[in-house]
Design brief:
Layout (H helix, E strand, L loop, with lengths): L1 H8 L2 E4 L2 E3 L6 H7 L3 H4 L2 H6 L8 E2 L9 E7 L7 E8 L4 H5 L3 E9 L2 E8 L7 E8 L2 E9 L9 H12 L6
Length: about 170
């Protein structure tokens, strides 16, 4: 499921299943230079957001992706009602608007930063929301997944904006 999120976020592909960053620089060097959400978002911040720091998962099912730094956490409830992921990438923000399957685009401002709000068409509007913030190296993206009927009582984009209000000051410019 995470791979679908990654694809929705703007991977380009030179061959089936081999997503490559859209950059003319060395992918390994560009990836190494990215802001890392796993190390830059503190446990205290996560706890304040209702997330469980020990649920941290880096990459896609633990596998790092060239051109991306990815971290995901789940809510501290058992079972978790929602999860959150933060992605940092070298990809251009414009790629999300042209990626097939990305829908419901809306330009928004959160914590004083412009962002693009959207979702992928595979998931229901009451389940999934993405916010992408431009950076000098690409963009940082936040996704929120409502995982239960109880969580769906809060629209995922409302939840994503609330979380982003706390996290945006940590994001690179």
């Amino acid at each position: 499921m995470f791979c679908g999120v990654l694809a929705a976020a703007g991977c380009s592909s030179t061959e089936s299943g081999n997503a490559q960053p859209s950059t003319s620089t060395d992918p390994a060097a560009a990836t190494a230079a990215l802001w890392d959400p796993c190390s830059q978002i503190s446990d205290g911040t996560l706890v304040g957001l209702g997330l469980k720091p020990s649920s941290e998962e880096s990459g896609i099912f633990g596998v790092e992706e060239p051109g991306w730094k990815i971290c995901r956490w789940t809510e501290d409830e058992v079972p978790a009602n929602f999860s959150m992921a933060v992605y940092s990438t070298v990809h251009a923000l414009d790629e999300i608007r042209t990626k097939p399957g990305n829908v419901d685009f809306k330009d928004v401002t959160v914590a004083g930063r412009s962002a693009v709000q959207y979702r992928d068409s595979v998931r229901a509007a009451d389940e999934f929301c993405l916010l992408a913030f431009p950076t000098t190296s690409g963009f940082v993206q936040l996704d929120v997944i409502n995982r239960s009927a109880q969580a769906k009582q809060t629209p995922p984009c409302d939840r994503a904006k609330s979380v982003a209000e706390v996290l945006v000051p940590l994001f690179p410019k």
